[in-house]
Amino acid sequence: MSTTNVNGHAAAATPPRGAPAPSEPIKAIRLRHPWRVVFAVLLVAIFAWFVVDAAFRPAYDWPSVGKYLFDRRISMAALVTIELTVFSMVIAIVLGVILAVMRLSPNPVVKSVAWFYLWIFRGTPVYVQLTIWGLISLIYTSIDIGLPFMTPWISFSTNAALNTFTLAVIGLALNEAAYMAEIVRAGLLSVDKGQEEASVALGMSWSQTMTRVILPQSMRVIIPPTGNEVISMLKTTSLVTAVPFSLELFTRSRDISAETFNPIPLLIVASIWYLFFTSILMVGQYFLEKRFSRGVGDRQTDKNDVGTGTGVITGVLPVVGAGQPTVIAPPKTDNPGTPGDGGAR
Questions:
Q1: Rg (CA), the chain
Q2: pTM metric for this prediction
Q3: Which CA distances in Å does 336 have to 302, 304, 307, 314, 342?
């Protein structure tokens, strides 16, 4: 093979005989989506038309919306709605954790009791449950404390001991606890059993294993559906009129609209308050998810370590809870040696 021509110039300037001709650079043309643009413009036009129409439609009565948006009765009802949501969810989360642990218990009686609870409260509508709680004084006229079949030590009238607010919180919390139990159980089961075995091997107690190993890893699974349940509870409080409790946001706005004979502006006012609280809860859920998802999805491979041993990747080990595989590189040695003489293999 010759590398120079007869004139002494470099052979690289002309391709050798039989070699393929150099290809022309590809001119990339951006793919066009005309129908996508048309559809987007159509959506924007429909949305703009709806906003303009709503702004001038008399039925919405925007002056009345502005009048009642910060009405004292509405503001107090919004505060009561938040109280119902917070109290109910705190009780539901605590009871849900207990029920989840009972469901995972090896004791068949404990497991059956938890399953029966979930069956009852998930199998009946929450409105029916709240109605029963509203009639609880007809079923149990008094609350007695003492030994069974003996004269009670202390006795309270049910109507005196439990007001409608308390009954609403109890009804909402007991129903929500059944759903929270399944959410917590799913989170606990998402953690590999090897994590618990490794913690026991390190000498950790059951409480240390749960608080330092199992629960932190399961929280990133538990928090998203729990945040969804909190938002759902905020709206479910509108059903406590079945107790009957009439001081929450929806019922209060409906009572005011019955006085003014103008229901649509009050419904808009209630919706604005619900959207405001939901927006705050969604922001809080975002930061909670970010807090408990640290280290997941941002694991970077150390390029300086991989390949500096023998240059060979030995395998990939899935790490439970991290969601990302960990690349196992061979150990570093000052003198790797050669296979067969006792060096690194």
A1: 33
A2: 0.72
A3: 20, 17, 13, 16, 9
